């Protein structure tokens, strides 16, 4: 005799043996509402594109920095107290040095996996800043900083600044000759501050450079203050990303109102987790196989010595280059020396550059007058001025990076140091404008090419001969998906400005500022190639249909080779042998 199961009950089925983990989760959910709060978020959709992984590389590099940094803090001694080294490295045994440098050598030679962790930590720091910069360039090129993401752009800029300061602090902690040279440069930058410079230096170093407190202070900033700020800003950055939803590339089915991609759980979480292990494995290979910052080769810091050919980490190259090519300008007023050759490149230029970077979304918004929300990305070619500006800035960075190694260039290529310096002084004003012009013209040429494909189709590679003996290449229509992607952009509008009083005879306010905006808009958009109108597209398609009708009678029995037109199955076709 069988008993039918009742499926109309009001009480949910329960396991015969309760699961302890489920019981704990149920208890927490009844009091905190965790399931209700996270149910929507774990199903949140994220678009999928290779360029979006750049931000993930920065995130996972930061995680690796935290993991390896915790390991290193267990053995590092942030003290400038003097000791005599008696460790494993023979070449430095018996030499007086600071406890910071001695503990760094101990980690490198005597702690199991210590050198691996040191080098993983350093490589992860380099990768962290590089990934942030490249990620920010991707955001810049695609217009992902536009409304409503201006604040996230500002947070990203501050993250890069904090990452550079964090890197400099960590780079200085070993107290070797190379890091001490970097601290000496920092001391010079601080002392170049008008009037207050010497007082600021005494406060920072606890007396005359190098003092005996700078390493402990940098240690606190490196392991506590700056990481805390980085964690808070990364959390804010991620929360705003989720709140605003991720941007996506234009394409069929993708609009400003939706997101096409994969849900957070389980697809995106699995992909992100796997990507973390890829980044971790790559950093581990670099740390195990590629030497970085071999402090034992430099020896302990001595203020009377300097490392020949010393170079900072790559992200400090722009500051180093500015310092090296700046002319030696000084002003003496009332017994006070103003070192413009250090103050301008070391303090004014970096701050000005940071302000321009942080303000850029608002500057572009003012020029274009675009106050709408944007969730679809722009192809870099469709924003020629912005793309050209970034290319020019990359050339500036490259030149300054090279200028920061002018002594290395001189010794390696047997060139005159002064000649390199004079060349860089001129190139910094000549090459970036040329790069800007060339990049903008390149983008405009690509826009014209896109319009030609939309109106006439793509080049098939098939050469046609007409009745009068002329030759032309056969064009085939684009696929609907490709055509949609090329047309998924808006036509640019040049702002004309306000002219004279309004309809009531009231003169317009801020005419000069409005005129400046009109000129900026003209420079921004005037040379752009706009996408074809609906009428132009219809005319182009009609012309293509007429061309197809003209060629149709010849297909199948035209001159040999014409059957390879992209419309027929040619698996069994072959050309006649030549005679």
Automatic annotation (TrEMBL):
Its main location: membrane. It is an enzyme of class 7 (translocase). It holds the Pfam family Cytochrom_B_N_2. It is found in: Cell membrane. Its EC number is 7.1.1.8. Keywords: Cell membrane, Electron transport, Heme, Iron, Membrane, Metal-binding, Respiratory chain, Translocase, Transmembrane, Transmembrane helix, Transport. Residues 251-446 form the Cytochrome b/b6 C-terminal region profile domain. InterPro entries: Cyt_b/b6_C, Cyt_b/b6_N, Cytb/b6-like_sf, Di-haem_cyt_TM. Residues 24-250 form the Cytochrome b/b6 N-terminal region profile domain. GO terms for cellular component: plasma membrane. The keyword Membrane applies. One of its GO terms (molecular function) is oxidoreductase activity. The keyword Transmembrane helix applies. One of its GO terms (biological process) is respiratory electron transport chain. This is Cytochrome bc1 complex cytochrome b subunit. The lineage of its organism: Bacteria, Bacillati, Actinomycetota, Actinomycetes, Propionibacteriales.
């Amino acid at each position: 005799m069988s008993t039918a199961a009742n499926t109309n009950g009001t009480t949910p089925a329960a396991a015969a043996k309760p699961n302890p983990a489920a019981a704990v989760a149920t208890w927490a959910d009844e009091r905190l509402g965790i399931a209700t709060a996270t149910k929507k978020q774990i199903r949140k959709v994220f678009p999928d594109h290779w360029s979006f992984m750049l931000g993930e590389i920065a995130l996972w590099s930061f995680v690796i920095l935290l993991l390896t940094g915790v390991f290193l803090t267990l053995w590092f001694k942030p003290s400038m107290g003097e000791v005599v080294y008696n460790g494993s490295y023979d070449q430095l045994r018996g030499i007086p040095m600071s406890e910071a440098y001695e503990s760094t050598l101990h980690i490198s030679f005597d702690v199991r996996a210590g050198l691996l962790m040191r080098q993983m930590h350093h490589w992860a720091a380099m990768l962290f800043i590089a990934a942030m910069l490249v990620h920010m360039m991707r955001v810049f090129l695609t217009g992902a900083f536009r409304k409503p993401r201006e604040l996230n752009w500002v947070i990203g800029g501050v993250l890069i600044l904090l990452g550079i300061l964090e890197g400099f602090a960590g780079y200085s902690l070993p107290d070797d000759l190379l890091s001490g040279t970097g601290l000496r440069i920092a001391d010079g930058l601080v002392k170049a501050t008008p009037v207050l410079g010497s007082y600021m230096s005494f406060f920072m170093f606890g007396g005359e450079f190098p003092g005996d407190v700078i390493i402990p202070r940098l240690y606190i900033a490196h392991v506590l203050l700056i990481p805390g700020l980085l964690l808070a800003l990364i959390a804010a950055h991620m929360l705003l990303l989720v709140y605003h939803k991720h941007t996506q590339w234009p394409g069929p089915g993708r609009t400003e109102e939706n997101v096409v991609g994969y849900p957070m759980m389980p697809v995106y979480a699995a992909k992100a987790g796997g990507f973390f292990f890829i980044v971790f494995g790559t950093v581990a290979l670099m740390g195990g196989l590629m030497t970085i910052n071999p402090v034992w080769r430099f020896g302990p810091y001595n203020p009377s010595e300097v490392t020949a050919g010393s170079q900072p980490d790559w992200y400090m190259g722009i500051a180093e280059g500015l310092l090296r090519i700046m002319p030696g300008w000084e002003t003496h007023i009332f017994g006070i020396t103003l070192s413009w050759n250090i103050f301008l490149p070391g303090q004014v230029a970096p701050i000005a550059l940071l302000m321009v970077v942080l303000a850029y979304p608002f500057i572009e918004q003012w020029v274009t007058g675009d106050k709408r929300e944007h969730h679809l990305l722009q192809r870099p070619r469709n924003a020629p001025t912005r793309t050209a500006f970034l290319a020019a800035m990359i050339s500036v960075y490259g030149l300054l990076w090279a200028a920061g190694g002018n002594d290395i260039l001189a010794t390696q290529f047997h060139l005159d140091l002064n000649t390199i310096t004079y060349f860089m002084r001129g190139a910094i004003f000549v090459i970036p404008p040329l790069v800007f012009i060339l990049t903008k013209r390149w983008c405009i040429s690509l826009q014209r090419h896109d319009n030609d494909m939309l109106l006439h189709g793509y080049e098939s590679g098939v050469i046609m001969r007409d009745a009068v003996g002329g030759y032309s290449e056969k064009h085939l229509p684009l696929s609907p998906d490709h055509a949609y992607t090329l047309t998924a952009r808006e036509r640019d509008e040049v702002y004309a400005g306000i002219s004279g009083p309004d309809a009531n005879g009231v003169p317009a306010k801020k005419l000069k500022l409005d005129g400046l905006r009109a000129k900026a808009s003209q420079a921004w958009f005037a040379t752009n190639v706009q996408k074809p109108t609906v009428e132009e597209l219809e005319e182009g398609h009609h012309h293509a249909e007429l061309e197809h009708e003209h060629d149709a009678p010849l297909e199948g029995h035209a001159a040999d080779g014409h059957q390879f037109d992209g419309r027929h199955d040619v698996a069994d076709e072959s050309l006649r042998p030549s005679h």
